[in-house]
Amino acid sequence: MILIDETDKDVAIPFVIPSAIVDRRTGKHILSYINTTRKPMSRIFAAKTVLGTRPAPRAAAFSSKGPNSLTPEVLKPDITAPGLNILAAWSPAAVGNMKFNIISGTSMACPHVSGIAALVKAVHPSWSPSAIKSAIMTTATILDKQHKPIREDPDGRRANAFDYGSGFVNPTRVLHPGLVYDSQPEDYIDFLCSIGYDKRSLHHVTGDNSTCDGAFKKPFDLNYPSIAVPNLEDNFSVTRVVTNVGEARSIYKSVVVSPAGVNVTVVPDRLIFRRIGQRIKFTVNFKVAAPSKGYTFGFLSWKNGRSQVTSPIAVRVSSAGFGLVR
User: Fold this and answer.
1) Cβ count near 91 (within 10 Å)
2) Beta-ladder partners of 263
3) What is the pTM of this model?
C-alpha cells in the first residue's frame, strides 16, 4: 500500500502489510504514473536510516498551536521539544510484547522536557517548579541547525510564538539562565481568582481552604516568562519580577523587538544586581502605533556579557485601539 499524506504531517505509522507513506507532491507523481501507464510497476526496497535532516527542528503540523483559548493573557504553548517519530521504550504489555515503538506527539515531547527539568532540579535542588520552567523557556532557541528562523509544517512558513512558544528547548544553556521568573503556589491561586474562580472552584484545585483575598486585579500580573496582550487598546502595561541566579554582581540591559504596529518600552531598561537571589521588578509598556491584523510577535531579552534571558511577546491590537479619521 502507498498512503499519500495529504496533510504532510510526516508521522510514521506502523502497518501490518508492506506500506510506504509519501507526501502530496510525491503522491501526485505516483498517481500520474499509475493513470498514464498501462501496467504500472513498483518495487519495495529495504528501509534505510536518513541522518542530518534539514532544516531541523521544524514545528510539526499536528502540534497544538496558540493562542490560548481559555486564558489568552497567558501565551501558549510554552516550549517545543523533540516529538516527531521518536523511537523509545514501550511497555511489552501494551501491544504484542513489543519493547520499542516509534510515536509522535506531546507524549514524546513531554519526556524530553521532563528529563531536562530533572537535570535542572538535580543541579539546583532549591529551585521552584516555576524557576525551572522559566530556565527552560528563557534559554530556548528560535533558530534551526542552519541558524535560520524555525519553519512550520506543512507550509514552510516562518513559525512564531504560537507555533513553538519560547522556542526549541536548549539543554546546553538551561542550567545557567542568569535570571528566572519565579512564582509560588499562592501566586497561581491569585491568578485563578483573577479569572473568576471562587472558593469552591479553588478547593477543587488546591484541596485546601484558599480564598481570593489577595487576588490579582488582572491575569496579566502572573509572573510568567512570556507576555501576551490579547486586546490592546491604545496603551497597556504589565509588570514582571526577575530573580538573579547567575553572578552576584551583574548588570543586564533590555533588548526589545516590538511586535508590528506596537511600541514597546521597558522601565527600567537596566537591571543592576548585587547579590544572588536579589529580585528586581520592571514594567513593560505597550502603545498602539499603527493598525495591525491579528496577533503580531516580538520579544524582550535581558542581556549581559554571559547570559541572554528571552521572553516572547504576542500582541493583538483591538479594533478600538486605532481610530480612523474620515
Assistant:
1) 10
2) 287
3) 0.88
